[in-house]
Amino acid sequence: MRRSGFTLVELLVAVFIFSVGIVGVLALFTGAARAGRRAQEETEAALVASSVASELRSEVEAGRKIVAAVDHPHADFPRYKYSVSSTQLDKAGREFYVEITVTWMRAGKLREEKFSTIILRKQ
User: How far is CA 62 from the centre of its chain?
Assistant: First the structure.
């Protein structure tokens, strides 16, 4: 007499293989979520640096000097702080090398991105 169906061992093997597959898929989702969050934070840091650079360009165009800032919070992105350092490249005060460091906390650790640009004052 022939019986149809699965044995207990076959069911256990099938459940094990299915479980391994599900764990792999979940690991992919968590990795993708982590990468997406990191990309969002780095994009926001770049926006902070761009905003600060734009303000500095306005200051230079108005004939004012670039003032160094340390751990200054950004108005639009309160999680982020920025520091500014600059070096005058010419004697006339028309060319400046500017470095903007943006910092923030992620998972209890301090993260930072550095951005640099050259700002030229028009005649």
Answer: 31
- pLDDT tens for each residue of 11-62: 999 999 999 999 999 999 999 999 999 999 999 999 999 999 999 999 999 8
Q: Which amino acid is at 86?
A: S
- Size (the chain), residues: 123
How far is residue 117 from each of residues 32, 87, 109, measured CA to CA in Å? 32, 11, 27
Where are the domains positioned within the chain?
A: 8-120
- The structure tokens listed for 4 are 């149809």
- Residues 72, 74, 80, 81, Cα dihedral to 10°: -10
Per-residue pLDDT reduced to its tens digit, 65-80? 888 889 999 999 999 9
CA distance linking residue 27 with residue 31, whole number of Å: 6
Which pTM was predicted? 0.78
**Whole-angstrom Cα distance, residue 79 to residue 41?**
10
Please tell me whether residue 120 adopts helix, strand or coil conformation: strand
